[in-house]
Amino acid sequence: MFGLALGDAMGYPTEFLNMAQITAKFGPWEKMGLPLSAGDVVRVTDDTQMALAVGEALVEAGAGEPGARRTRGATGVAAALTPASVESALRKQFVAWLHDPDNNRAPGQTCLRACAALERGLRWQDATVRGSKGCGANMRVTPVALIPGLRPAHRAGIAQLQAALTHGHPTALAASDLTCHATWLLAHGCELADLLPRLRAYAEDSRNTYHVEWLGDLAVSAGAPDPRAFIALGWDECLRALDTAAAALRTKDVSRDPCEAVGAGWVAEEALATALYCLLVVNGDPRGAVARAAHSSGDSDSIAALAGAFAGARHGLTYWPPEWREALEYKERIAALAAVWDNAA
């Protein structure tokens, strides 16, 4: 969670700038640091805000406080996280984010529209923006990967549901599930060389699985004749994005703009693939991953947020300078949320 927020903060001032502008303002990517302001906190974007909303919704839905988690155990937590409890808590947190006065960091229109519809009480399948696969779906999924004791299908269902409340396109769902799985793999010791092959295998295995208990009639509402064909479209796009990242890594030109090499990251599967590229092209170095991601011409904050989340899942807090964490906006909320999962083991 700290890695996500630090990457988000580093990419915040570079989003919407081209490479020449970024280099002129921040220097080469290797020398890029967190944009600290004397006497001020380091600001994050809606990426971190909504990741916190997802995490805090999951706590409300059944994760509990750290002490309660140690008492209830992972089995009790998993039983509490039902489609109804998760949907209700997510709706509440997303509407709260919609009206938060700090929600002024150029939030995505899809999230704003869908959250306004959720507030009006529409079924979430009708509130979601069905044609959107923007990276707002998976920039916030990291907390789902941190919950211990969930079966893979349970984790996948939650990852897809949190995306589907706002982004109804099948690629948004699949990319969120795959982003969650990447974080889970890295947190459980996956070697960097195995990461893309294991993600590809997961995507292929998931291609025809429509989690009806979590998604309900979303596919029918979207006009799809077959739920399996609906979700397969999303997984196919994710597979192509993974292939693009793998091809770019074969040349491993660390000086190249990641968005030129893989994709600009405005859509979910590209944000995932480009963030994975940024992690792997620097051989997993945490600060290198977020700097390379932030120093990019596309959706820099979202790409760097995911790269930071992946690096943090692999390394923990070890490689994040304490002064960065201390200056970070929302550091108390991030630490409180992280404590729930850290103490669960």
Uncertain runs: 66-72
Q: Identify the quaternary structure here.
A: single chain
Q: How would you characterize the largest beta sheet?
A: none
**Helix segment tally:** 20
Give a written overview of the molecule:
It is a single chain. Helix content is 66%, strand content 0%. The chain is mainly alpha-helical and 345 residues long. The protein has one domain: ADP-ribosylation/Crystallin J1 (ADP-ribosylglycohydrolase fold), CATH 1.10.4080. α9 packs across α10 (170-187), α14 packs parallel to α16 and α17 packs antiparallel against α18 (300-315). The chain starts with a helix and ends with a helix.
Short note summarizing the structure:
The chain is mainly alpha-helical.
Characteristics of this structure?
single chain, 345 residues, mainly alpha, ADP-ribosylglycohydrolase fold, 20 helices, globular
